[in-house]
Design a protein that fits this description.
Length: about 400
């Protein structure tokens, strides 16, 4: 089924990328007839601490979001060419990653003795009856709210259809993707944005669905694959089987764990670890410090691989996992984690001893979907979100 549907003429949107390591924001000139253009973007890193708690992470995330909103409103509109007359913002599109969101695909079935007409009302009733099964059971999500819901596959009498309503069937199967968050989190995010931006409409979306939607468009022949999103505090794995985003899993080890090991192994303060990592990635050596950095990176890769393998073993869909892996991560750590996956032993998850085929997502792969103003440095996460925001806008 098509997740994208082009709509009206050009208008101005704001998009936000909220993860566990940073917050990004951008001004998007959306269009139904031309490639959407990103006019300005700004990203704020969430402060790194030796030990983090959920409450501290939320507080720092909201502070970073506030910084991004101010940058967009006080600098962004001028840089984008609007001068002293800010544009009318039609929509704010907010992407959330773990731990701010939990996503889940539910499989619903309806069986009748005789063919019955399928209508939106029938589908809504089925959703309501299955609500208890669809809500995540993870700790802290007892009072969660559903912020996103998409019908990603419909099969009537054994045949897949993109237009299920208005047809009669005795056997109906749906795959429904839902995203859930805690109300106080989304309310605080919305309040932080609305202090400075007044839009006609705002919406929350999961980054896992955004990445899936874009990959399905870019690689239409790939029916089954893994999406590995490595953020600051969390790694999120999504498994796609036969064109359906069937299951998601997160574990608390990602870029920030690597930075903490660098801080402990080199005695460099947190404020310098990102620079140190960047120099190592670009140059491969930093004199006397090189050996310490290399040891910390190898230790981080080893520990991350252990958790990655453990997460893969918990997927319940099938015995064997797809061979293709798409990786989204910051430029300074993407090669490190890609190499870790290449070096890992995953034969028990595959039908052969072949290694995972890893593709690191880059902005040049998204050039057919979005364009960037020449003065702006492309951001792959913003590009992915912009591509989907342009198609799903109201």
């Amino acid at each position: 089924m098509g997740l994208f549907s082009a709509q009206k003429d050009s208008d101005c949107m704001l998009i936000f990328d909220i993860g566990s390591g940073s917050v990004g924001g951008a001004i998007l000139l959306a269009s139904a007839t031309h490639t959407p253009s990103l006019l300005y973007s700004f990203r704020s890193e969430i402060p790194l601490h030796s030990n983090t708690t959920g409450r501290r992470l939320l507080s720092h995330m909201l502070r970073s979001l506030s910084e991004v909103v101010l940058a967009v409103t006080e600098e962004g509109f001028k840089v984008a060419g609007f001068g002293a007359n800010p544009p009318r913002i039609t929509e704010v599109f907010i992407s959330l990653s773990a731990p701010w969101i939990i996503s889940k695909t539910s499989f619903l079935s309806l069986h009748n003795e005789k063919p019955e007409l399928l209508t939106p009302a029938v589908f809504t009733t089925l959703l309501e009856h299955s609500r208890a099964e669809r809500i995540p059971q993870e700790p802290g999500m007892q009072n969660c709210i559903e912020i996103e819901q998409k019908l990603i596959k419909a099969v009537l009498n054994g045949y897949e259809t993109a237009v299920p309503y208005g047809k009669k069937a005795s056997d109906v199967d749906f795959a429904v993707f839902g995203s859930f968050s805690v109300a106080r989190i989304t309310e605080q995010i919305a309040e932080t944005i609305s202090r400075h931006i007044h839009a006609k409409h705002s919406s929350f979306h999961s980054f896992s669905m955004i990445a899936f939607a874009v990959l399905r468009e870019l690689y239409p022949k790939e029916e089954s694959f893994l999406i590995v999103d490595i953020s600051g505090e969390q790694t999120e794995i999504s498994i796609v089987k036969k064109g359906i985003l069937v299951e998601m899993m997160t574990f608390p080890s990602a870029k920030n764990h690597l930075l903490r090991l660098l801080e402990r192994g080199s005695s460099v303060p947190f404020s310098g670890t990102t620079t140190m990592l960047k120099l190592h990635t670009e140059n491969g050596s930093m004199g006397p410090m090189a050996e310490k950095i290399a040891r910390s990176i190898e230790q981080a890769k080893k520990e991350w691989l252990e958790k990655f393998s453990e997460a893969l073993s918990t997927f319940s869909t099938e015995v064997f996992l797809p061979h293709r892996v798409f990786l989204t991560a910051d430029d300074d750590v993407s090669p490190i984690f890609a190499q870790a996956i290449h070096e890992g032993s995953f034969s028990r998850f595959a039908m052969s001893a072949a290694l995972f085929d890893v593709t690191e997502l880059r902005n040049d792969q998204l050039a057919s979907l979005v364009s960037w103003s020449p003065a702006q440095a492309p951001d792959v996460f913003i590009s992915l979100i912009a591509a989907v925001a342009n198609r799903l806008r109201r």
